[in-house]
Amino acid sequence: MYLVTFRLDPGEYDEEFHELNDIIQAVAEDTDGYLGKRTWNNTESDEVLVVYYWKSLNALNSFGDDTNHKRAKQRWTEWYDAYEVTVTEVLETYGSGFGDDADPPR
């Protein structure tokens, strides 16, 4: 499994951002190997952290090849003050679990 951590400092979102963001999320959900996402918001700094779960690197790369996703990445300066993406391979997970709502779905 792979995690893509998308850390961002939001700027100004316009209607086009929201439309493109919805399209990209739908593309992710339709990509074979997409397992889900979790989002956290830091109320003190407005920083947002989104973690996307992928079954394989091939699945992630397939999503990364999407035209809408590429277009959004080219326009990041219009919508974010800063961002950082980290791709991590998960070697092991353990703990008590979070029940049926756990991410990624098991």
Which features characterize this protein?
106 residues, Alpha-Beta Plaits, 4 strands
What report would you give on this structure?
With 106 residues, the chain is an alpha+beta fold. It has one domain (2-92): 2-Layer Sandwich (Alpha-Beta Plaits). The chain has helices at 15-30, 57-64, 67-74, 76-79, and strands spanning 2-10, 34-41, 48-54, 80-89. The radius of gyration is 14 Å and the shape is globular. Keywords: Plasmid. This is DUF4188 domain-containing protein. InterPro entries: Dimeric_a/b-barrel (IPR011008), Jasmonate_Hydroxylase-like (IPR052936), Monooxy_af470 (IPR025444).
Number of domains: 1
Helix content: 25-40%
Counted by DSSP, the helix tally is: 4
CATH topology-level fold name: Alpha-Beta Plaits
State the name of the first-level CATH class. Alpha Beta
| Largest sheet geometry | 4 strands, antiparallel
What sort of overall outline do the alpha carbons produce when their principal axes are compared? Answer: globular
What average pLDDT do the residues reach? Answer: 87
- Which segments are poorly predicted (pLDDT under 50) over 5 or more consecutive residues? none
Order of helices and strands: EHEEHHHE
What's the alpha carbon Rg, rounded to whole Å?
A: 14 Å
Structural class of the helix and strand makeup?
A: alpha+beta
Oligomer: single chain
Organism: Haloterrigena salifodinae
Keywords: Plasmid
Protein name: DUF4188 domain-containing protein
